[in-house]
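Reopening this one. Same input as before:
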Amino acid sequence: MKKKTVILSLAGATVVLGGFGLFGYEYSMLGQRFQALETEAFQLQEENASLNQQLDGKSSELKENISKVEEQEKYIAGQKDYVSELTQQIQEYAAKLPKDETDEESGETEDTDDMDPYGETEQDPYPDLYAQEHGSGISENQKYVYLTFDDGPSELTPQVLDLLDEYGAKATFFVVCKNNEEYAEYLPEIVKRGHTLALHSYSHDYHTIYRSLDAFLEDYEKVFDWVKKETGYTPSLFRFPGGSNNGSSYVRKEIIQEMERRGFVYYDWNVSSGDGSNLTTTENIIDNICSNIGYVENPVVLMHDGTGKQATLNALPSVLKYLAEEGYEFRSLDKTLQPVQF
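Same output, byte for byte:
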């Protein structure tokens, strides 16, 4: 009996121990499986985080591209509006001209070789409207860039001058008098800092200045006298409002011949910042200048420092930095250069 009891006890103990052994094995396997699942879950989390990061990057890039496209669309729309406005002004002006002045439309050409309406000083109603010689010449194998600012001075002009000083840059300022009289104190500062002070008309009114040669001279005498009075400086350069391709060809030829007889030289431009439109952005201005500057020799860049041209002021540091890094020397225009003319 006792022997049977012992055997039963041993059998029970064996079963219990076997059960514990099996449970321990299963527990060990479950632990390993849990670790494997935990490792796999961690890897999935890392992959998910990486995918989310890539998705965020693509989303950010997409938003940036959409923003750029929207800015380009705004710029193009602004340029269209600006061109449309200029075209309308020219058309309105041309409609008011006498028929005999619109020689290009009629197919007739005028010989201006003998035009000399104010050749005799005694008959000249503008006896003081004569330029002086200014200039320093250029050197071969040197990259020059000529930054020009139209329609100033304004409240922005001192900041433009300070930025130019940071790069030792010289520029040319084509000034307008009407509505800018309160900023006359900046005219002598332009001269003092070694820049060229040039004329861009008194009124900047196409209907007024392109009506006739006499109307043009009357307008320019006012801005000429204003500059001389404020600075003692005698300007020798001028720029047609809207460029030299404005007005009827007959009047334009008269103006050019007479102004050249008086010693003045006119300058257009071959690189435009596009800031003539108030819809132009800072980024557009930077891109317009930096993308096109390398396609022309001795580039003359059109910009504006008139009231409201904050985008131009904001773009100027980047433009100056880029041009300096490209090896350009910043020079002001003078009469010794071959002028850029349309």
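So the earlier flakiness isn't reproducible anymore. For the record, Confidence is low (pLDDT under 50) at residues 99-110.
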